């Protein structure tokens, strides 16, 4: 799932490439992407991009004047890439990645006055990509509910405490709860908890003051340093860069980079997460149970 560091870099690249560009064509290949049926994505034609920003894990393409915003939720497997030079709507999916696998299919193609085409893609078994055309991005429920963002300069210990103090909810769940902290998902919550030496299944309410302060500092550092590390990486390479940077997430069976113990899996909701027993659970092995 795309998370705030990679989505931030996507927003920055799109802003640099598209600000001032006019949309000349929109091809909606999968109608279920459109979430505002009264304002179809094709109504974007003729609009000029003013800027591109991020809200949590969502992208906001703001148009000049009163033309509104295209807000894109990348969902579980959505992403964006530039169409290869010379590709058209019929053969854009024929390009291959470095691993010689077809890229995810484009569900929406947006062409600009410089001839470039942005492909909005989705690799899942169901359509998780979504697009809204709204006057204000906060009309989109997923944006309106967002809590404070650890990547923001103004994010404070008080913001973190408001999300965690007294919460009888697993710490990992709180980190991923978008209403509490915007932009963090399964992968970065694993990385944050490992770096902070905090159990993923302990309740936030049980954190001692020093643990909570350490977790705040680590959360901010992990997210902001990941953003800095991804700058300059082409958007089609960001997923690979994220995977390569992981220390525990997705690495069950590998040695912990801190203590050498074996990284373990455990089931968290509908997903699988990873942790180090020595560093995070006082040696206890969490049961790998069915969701």
From TrEMBL:
Keyword vocabulary terms for this entry: DNA damage, DNA repair, DNA-binding, Glycosidase, Hydrolase, Lyase, Metal-binding, Multifunctional enzyme, Zinc, Zinc-finger
SMART domains per the UniProt record, alphabetical: Fapy_DNA_glyco, H2TH
Residue stretches making up the Formamidopyrimidine-DNA glycosylase catalytic domain: 2-127
E.C. designation(s): 3.2.2.23, 4.2.99.18
PROSITE patterns: FPG_CAT (PS51068), ZF_FPG_2 (PS51066)
Span of domain FPG-type: 247-281
Pfam families for the chain: Fapy_DNA_glyco, H2TH, zf-FPG_IleRS
A GO molecular function held by the record: 8-oxo-7,8-dihydroguanine DNA N-glycosylase activity
Catalytic activity: Hydrolysis of DNA containing ring-opened 7-methylguanine residues, releasing 2,6-diamino-4-hydroxy-5-(N-methyl)formamidopyrimidine
BP GO annotations: base-excision repair
Known cofactor(s): Zn(2+)
Family: Belongs to the FPG family.
Protein name: DNA-(Apurinic or apyrimidinic site) lyase
């Amino acid at each position: 799932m795309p998370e705030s560091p990679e989505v931030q870099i996507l927003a920055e690249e799109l802003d640099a490439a598209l600000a001032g560009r006019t949309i000349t064509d929109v091809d909606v290949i999968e109608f279920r992407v459109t979430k505002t049926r009264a304002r179809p994505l094709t109504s974007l034609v003729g609009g000029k991009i003013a800027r591109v920003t991020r809200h949590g894990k969502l992208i906001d393409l703001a148009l000049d004047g009163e033309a509104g915003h295209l807000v894109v939720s990348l969902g579980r497997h959505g992403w964006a890439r530039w169409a290869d030079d010379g590709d058209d709507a019929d053969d854009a999916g024929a390009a291959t990645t470095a691993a010689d696998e077809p890229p995810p299919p484009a569900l929406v193609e947006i062409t600009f006055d410089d001839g470039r085409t942005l492909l909005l893609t989705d690799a899942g078994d169901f359509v998780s990509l979504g697009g809204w055309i709204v006057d204000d991005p906060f009309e989109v429920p997923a944006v309106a509910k967002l809590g404070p963002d650890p990547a923001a300069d103004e994010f404070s210990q008080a913001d973190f405490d408001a999300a965690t103090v007294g919460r009888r909810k697993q710490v990992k769940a709180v980190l991923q709860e978008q209403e509490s902290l915007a932009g963090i998902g399964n992968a970065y919550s694993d990385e944050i908890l490992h770096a902070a030496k905090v159990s993923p299944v302990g309740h936030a309410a049980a954190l001692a003051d020093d643990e909570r302060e350490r977790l705040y500092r680590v959360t901010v550092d992990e997210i902001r340093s990941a953003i800095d590390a991804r700058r300059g990486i082409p958007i089609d390479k960001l997923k690979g860069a994220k995977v390569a940077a992981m220390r525990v997430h997705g690495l069950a069976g590998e040695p912990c980079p801190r203590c050498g113990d074996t990284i373990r899996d455990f089931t968290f909701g509908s997903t699988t997460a990873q942790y180090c027993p020595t560093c995070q659970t006082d040696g206890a092995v969490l049961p790998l149970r069915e969701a």
